[in-house]
Every structure is written in structure tokens, then in C-alpha cells.
Design a protein that fits this description.
Radius of gyration: 33 Å
Shape: rod-shaped
Order of helices and strands: HHH
Largest sheet: none
Strand content: under 5%
Distance between the termini: 102 Å
Helix content: over 70%
Number of strands: 0
Number of helices: 3
């Protein structure tokens, strides 16, 4: 009986009553705790799967963000040429 009361008190539940009442109260709360824990695990697994799926999509996009690399090279050439002060002045 003392253990039942201590367990109920630890959970902030009433610890007064018959042994059968205390036992039923504790079993009910233990079941709720177990269900909540399982739900948390399921939600964590879902978040992990969602994160992995998002990472897979993001990595695919990050590998080749510019589908036409020749444009990127031309932009680089333009920047290099425009940084030469005498270029394009007809010298």
C-alpha cells in the first residue's frame, strides 16, 4: 500500500482510498503514460522521416542549383572582362 501511495503522490494524484482504488488509479495513469510515450515515439519517427525526405530533396537541388552551367561561366567571364579598366575603350 505504501508503494502505491508513493507512486500516486509522485504523479500528483490522490493517494487516499482503498487498495483496489489506488491500484486502479495507478494502472490508469501508467497506461496513459505508456500511450503518450508511444505517441511521442511515433511522432519523432514521422519527423525524422520528413526531415530525411526534405534533406534528400534539398541535397538534390543543392548539387545542381544552376541547370545550365554555361550561363554561369559566361557571367564569370563578363565580370572578369569588366574588371579590366582599359577593356572596351578601343585602345
Amino acid at each position: 500500500m505504501a508503494e502505491l501511495r508513493l507512486e500516486l503522490q509522485a504523479r500528483g494524484l490522490p493517494s487516499k482510498g482503498l487498495k483496489s482504488q489506488l491500484s486502479a488509479r495507478l494502472q490508469k495513469v501508467l497506461k496513459q503514460e505508456q500511450d503518450a510515450e508511444e505517441k511521442d515515439k511515433e511522432e519523432a519517427s514521422e519527423r525524422e522521416r520528413d526531415t530525411e525526405a526534405a534533406d534528400a530533396d534539398g541535397h538534390a537541388a543543392a548539387k545542381d542549383p544552376d541547370p545550365d552551367p554555361s550561363d554561369r561561366d559566361n557571367d564569370k567571364d563578363k565580370r572578369e572582362v569588366s574588371s579590366i579598366p582599359w577593356f572596351g575603350r578601343g585602345i
